[in-house]
Specification:
The complex is a heterodimer of chains A (114) and B (112). Chain A has 114 residues and is mainly β. Chain A has no helices and eleven strands. In chain A, 0% of the residues lie in helices and 56% in strands. In chain A, strands 2, 4, 5, 6, 9, 10 and 11 form a seven-stranded mixed sheet that branches. The radius of gyration of chain A is 13 Å and the shape is globular. Chain B is built from no helices and eleven strands. In chain B, the strands form two sheets. In chain B, strands 2, 4, 5, 9, 10 and 11 form a six-stranded mixed sheet that branches. In chain B, strands 1-3-8-7-6 form a five-stranded antiparallel sheet, with no helix packed on it. The chains are: A mainly beta (114), B mainly beta (112). The interface between A and B is medium-sized, with 26 and 26 residues.
Chain lengths: 114, 112
């Protein structure tokens, strides 16, 4: 375990479902990130939270809705997804977004939209 | 959109061989360059964070160099072992966007 825990590890959902991905860290980090990895593509940044405030939204469709209730927890709420949203969703954390420290990643949630 | 390129895309080496791969990136607005190792079914693990032109970092048999003026970094593995098999990712932290932009990775397989 890296210190960043993601649940669930695997998720299969229909296009009309609503589900949430959860990420938790107790490393004392103040920045948390959602990344998406689709097949054969690089990791793509989706959202950044720094000290619980969203600082980046990389043109992500509104069917993905992040929530950061405190510095230790990050959620990604999913609704009316499309099959092309099937991917590995990775959460990461760092001390804060303005420092150059390496990120600590979770193991990811493998999402399949049917 | 920043373009971070890694080459080769994949390679196979024999146990005991030394190997290296390349990360290329735009040299303007450079802030930091990260290297990660990502083993199958695990989390990406930070190897190095490099900030200064000419930086060289080492961790066991793995080392990395950085040239920010020409926009490239090399990762070297000396005496590869099967447990080195993984995808090696580089990522650019640029001063303007302050976002970590990843390359597609180099998938290394070390054959026993």
């Amino acid at each position: 375990e890296t210190g960043v825990t993601q649940t669930p590890r695997h998720l299969v959902m229909g296009m009309t479902n609503k589900k949430s991905l959860k990420c938790e860290q107790h490393l004392g980090h103040n920045a948390m990130y959602w990344y998406k990895q689709s097949a054969k593509k690089p990791l793509e940044l989706m959202f950044v939270y720094n000290f619980k405030e969203q600082t980046e939204n990389n043109s992500v469709p509104s069917r993905f809705s992040p929530e950061c209730p405190n510095s230790s927890h990050l959620f990604l709420h999913l609704h009316t997804l499309q099959p092309e949203d099937s991917a590995l969703y990775l959460c990461a954390s760092s001390q804060n977004r303005d420092r150059v420290d390496g990120y600590t990643f979770g193991s990811g949630t493998r999402l399949t939209v049917v | 959109i920043l373009n971070v390129e890694q080459s080769p895309q994949s390679l196979h080496v024999q146990e005991g061989d030394s190997t290296n791969f390349t990360c290329s990136f735009p040299s303007s607005n450079f802030y930091a360059l990260h290297w990660y190792r990502w083993e199958t079914a695990k989390s990406p693990e930070a190897l190095f964070v490099m900030t200064l032109n000419g930086d060289e970092k080492k961790k066991g048999r793995i080392s990395a160099t950085l040239n920010t003026k020409e926009g490239y970094s090399y990762l070297y593995i000396k005496g590869s072992q099967p447990e080195d098999s993984a995808t090696y990712l580089c990522a650019l932290l640029s001063g303007s966007a302050r976002q970590l932009t990843f390359g597609s990775g180099t998938q290394l397989t070390v054959l026993p």
